[in-house]
Amino acid sequence: MFTLRSLEVFYWAACLRSFSRAAEKLNTTQPAISQRIGAMEEAIGEPLFNRATKPLVLTPVGRTLFGHAELVLRQVAEMERDLELNRRMHGTIRLGVSETIVQTWLSRFLKHSSRRFPSTDFDITVDVTPSMLNALESGEIDIALMLGPAVLEGFACVKLRDYRLQFYAVPGVLPGAQFTYENASSIPILTYPRNTYPFDHLRELLFQKTGRAPRIFTNSSISTIERLALQGIGIALVAEGTLGVTTGNSILKAVPSEIALPPLSFYAFYPLGFGSEVLEELAAIAQRVASDVLQNGEDAIEQYSLSL
């Protein structure tokens, strides 16, 4: 009665609750989505969506069809996986990623992912976690490697690895040999943007300990934070291993500090349901690459080969 393409169009329109977002997801146009949905409704003789609401809501008939559509599409996806057809999948994965990962092991992840799915392209967005959470829930990206954990209904949350937060500065910038609560107000702290865990936690901690609001200069670019720290503007607070200190070419030095902060924990998030099979494999690749970097260092992973 319906083609697989029509069921796929209906499925994503229902999941994303928007014809325009379904069109973006499927690399087509909104009129094409509307035309297919309209043809399905004409064949059934009843509407599948309540178009008077925004976002879209399924009608009772639409909910019934959704269950059948998901079952059919999952079975097709399972067949393709068993036949290794997903390796030849042509398409684009919209990947959201935190800059900490960009600065450490993103290139390795892309290399191994491209081996596994040689016909798949990656559309990469580097952003902060709050923005990526919104993009995930609205269907603007397919998978995100970002800070967590977080409870998102209908999404998987796979632990990748932790990064210790470390203060860095050029010699002579810090008054004293240690960064303390007492001297924290004497120099700006260069760190991640507002509404991220390091900024919020650090500001609250210093305010509670000193009774004063600290001077915090925020930026979403780790390379910019490093450049400012190199120029003596302040002391950088970033994930360990993300600055040039790992290569030995930077004059930035790790600074001892009495200010202890919990580590950054990174997770892979992707939607559950039909279409998640490839995303699940990508999350597994990210997990194994991140783990290997943690255990064997940045250089050892060049010899690493995923047994997929």
TrEMBL record:
Domain (HTH lysR-type) ranges: 2-59
Stored InterPro entries: LysR_HTH_N (IPR000847), LysR_subst-bd (IPR005119), WH-like_DNA-bd_sf (IPR036388), WH_DNA-bd_sf (IPR036390)
Record-linked Gene3D superfamilies: Periplasmic binding protein-like II, Winged helix-like DNA-binding domain superfamily/Winged helix DNA-binding domain
SUPFAM superfamilies per record: Periplasmic binding protein-like II, Winged helix' DNA-binding domain
GO molecular function: DNA-binding transcription factor activity; transcription cis-regulatory region binding
Family matches, as Pfam families: HTH_1, LysR_substrate
Protein name as annotated: Transcriptional regulatory protein, LysR family
